[in-house]
Amino acid sequence: MSTKIKGELIFSRSLVSKKWTFLLCFGSFCVGILFTDRMWIMPESKDIARPSVTEAERLKLISESCGPKTLYQKEVNRDPQALFGEVSKTHDAIQTLDKTISRLEMELAAARSAQESLVNGAPISNDMEKKQLPGKRRYLMVVGINTAFSSRKRRDSIRTTWMPSGEKRKRLEEEKGIIIRFVIGHSATAGGILDRSIEAEDKKHGDFLRLDHVEGYLELSGKTKTYFSTAFSMWDADFYVKVDDDVHVNIATLGETLVRHKKKRRVYIGCMKSGPVLSQKGVRYHEPEYWKFGENGNKYFRHATGQLYAISRDLASYISINQHVLHKYANEDVTLGAWFIGLDVTHIDDRRLCCGTPPDCEWKAQAGNICVASFDWTCSGICRSADRIKEVHRRCGEPENAIWKAKF
Prior knowledge:
By secondary structure, this protein is of the alpha/beta class. The protein is built from 15 helices and nine strands.
């Protein structure tokens, strides 16, 4: 009895415990769900940062001011002078960018040329080996006066007329950015009497540019190429000029002429001509490769006459980079024109670069149209220049202080 009662009591207690356990678990589950829901509730919209009224108005004003109608209205209401000023600034910026692109193109071509030279075993020019020093001065122009060993009297006559000497020449370089040098190579006998005479003259005046070139009349094309390459490697200038030593030049007028074309790319300035291709041997200016220019009786393409011409910096760079592959013809002026005929070059025909000697240049000077260069066509220079250039300078030269008053 007692055992049974005891067993019933035990069974009842066990049943009660299971019920309470189930209720306790179910309650815990509900509490857990409630707690989890509280943790994952999204923040109300009032807790999200919103722009203030002032900021919203500002954004609205900006969006409205950027509308096409508003922009158009602004352009219409703008001051014409201010608008013109901005257009001018934009134009200048485009030109500067254009010149920068041209310079980068030349540098890229130089790098490619150097690489090809290394691959093919060809020599590399000195200017390609030298790195441009940062802050290197930029000059307006380098004027190379082509001369010969026998032309001492011509050089002295130039020094006493249109070319400043001594301290004035140095001042010309420092203040006006104009370099002037007599250009000459070496004799066939290195270190001979001819070379020593030039060295002595250079020691006295200091106005020579010596080239790695053997002098000779039939080597003028090669001398011209070497001159431009050497001058480009030594001086960073806007223009490089070549002039013969029997030509009268007005330096200030030359500078003013070149400055007008300073912003143009690949400029080739001179008195453009087109003479006959001479196939007959023994005559002056005979062209051995006449057959390349077509049938007999043909004329050359337009090119600057050789007494004086100028090229811009990018063309001088082109010659320097490609000097080992540029072909030379018998005549120097034709050769230079041939180098540029296939390029995108601006040819400028300026007849003031080829005036006649007095009375021609004198009449033009009196009329206010001063010549850049004067010479006699019949002599391809001033006839008996050493004796006559002083008279030409007196009658056709610009005022003595013109170069110092000029603003380039």
